[in-house]
């Protein structure tokens, strides 16, 4: 919500959605949003009670979902996509994004993770990565006030997303350049 107030650079069309903590809704909603907007990038943000930093998740996992959601439902298969790869990495180089955002001197600590937790955050991330062939990102944030304010988190997300878009645009320039030879 804070990011929606702050916005992103002028050439970015920002759409903000709140995704319920429900496996079946995620399986329906994420593909529908990709279809509706055909975005360059989708960045999911989830609150983690265990997080003490703003955490960039490198990958999503397909199996191991045993926790009940807000509807007291859990997929019988305990997985996102039957037959999908065990793990999908984001095409975004999270190490580069982390270094760049940390160098900006914001009053927020940014870290990297390879395990989004095998609950709805990880489930949503994997679903989105699978749908987008890796053109997704997931950022875990601590609960408000523990230790950051909404404004601090909003500014951090703004910086993170702008760096992600920059990294994505530069990696595509390289890919396009290689195809021309």
What is the topological layout?
Blueprint: H1 2-6, H2 23-37, E1 42-47, E2 54-57, E3 59-61, E4 87-89, H3 94-103, E5 110-113, H4 120-132, E6 136-141, H5 150-180
Parallel strand pairs: 1-6, 2-5
Antiparallel strand pairs: 2-6, 3-4
Helix pairs in contact: 2-4, 3-5
Protein name: Pyroglutamyl-peptidase I
Active site: 57, 121
EC number: 3.4.19.3
CATH fold label: Aminopeptidase
CATH architecture: 3-Layer(aba) Sandwich
Strand order of the biggest β-sheet: 1-6-2-5
Proportion of helical residues: 40-55%
Distance between the termini: 44 Å
Roughly how many Å is the radius of gyration?
A: 16 Å
Q: Count the helices. How many?
A: 5
What integer is the average pLDDT? 92
Order of helices and strands: HHEEEEHEHEH
> Which residues sit in consecutive blocks of at least 5 with pLDDT less than 50?
177-181
Main location: cytoplasm
InterPro entries: Peptidase_C15 (IPR000816), Peptidase_C15-like (IPR016125), Peptidase_C15-like_sf (IPR036440), PGPEP1_Cys_AS (IPR033694), PGPEP1_Glu_AS (IPR033693)
Function: Removes 5-oxoproline from various penultimate amino acid residues except L-proline.
Family: Belongs to the peptidase C15 family.
Jot down its keywords.
Peptidase_C15-like_sf; alpha/beta; four-stranded mixed sheet; Aminopeptidase; globular; 6 strands; 5 helices; 41% helix; pyroglutamyl-peptidase activity; two-stranded antiparallel sheet
Brief account:
This protein has five helices and six strands. With 181 residues, it is α/β, with parallel strands linked by helices. The chain has a single domain, classed as 3-Layer(aba) Sandwich (Aminopeptidase).
